[in-house]
Structure prediction request, 231 residues.
Amino acid sequence: MQQKFKRDFNELKNIVMMTEAVFRELGLNPALRNIVDLATEELFVNMVTYNTESTEDILIEMAPHPLGLEVRLTDYDVERFDPTRAAPVDVNAPLDERSPGGLGLYLVMKMVDSIHYEYRNRQSKITFIVDRK
Amino acid sequence: MFDIALADDGTVIVEGRLDAAQAVKAQAFLDQVEGQCVLDLAKLEYISSAGLGVLLKTHKRLMGVGSGIKLVNVNNHTHDIFRYSGFDKLFEIVPAGI
Prediction:
């Protein structure tokens, strides 16, 4: 299943509906939903927030994978930004050294089973897999 | 769906999905809170980093005046997110069922 979404946080509810439909169609374990929702939201929000030079919609594809579910987000007409190389977050820092933000990509790396970034022809593609186990 | 409201006993009830689209609404509500704040997360289905940012910002503001946020009725998934984020070291957290 694939669908394009406008560069708007209000599209998150429509992305959730797409994920819901994919889970229903593939009969995936509902316990994985929050992981897929979180990783998809964080990557989508990152594209919307930082790739501000593009006006193109963002493509999200979800497909069965031998391990579980493969999700790919494609952002068009953007500069290279590899989210897998985002700056690390010190989650052990005391409260006065913590600031809002920066946690999203860290959580993605922590929760998905594999993630891959590629950049070609001004297209950023990020693919992650969530293991059904 | 997302909602945040004050219960009769002063507890803040958070319900639904706290994502990047709802973070502004949650922040606007919590910016009005003064003193010790108890957030009941029993009906919180989902939280992303945008929601975590709202909790952290509010907690820092309240800690600055000698109070803070206590998170109660935290389900397993939300607790995992808090643990991965290091929030379990920053907040008083009471899991669901206790």
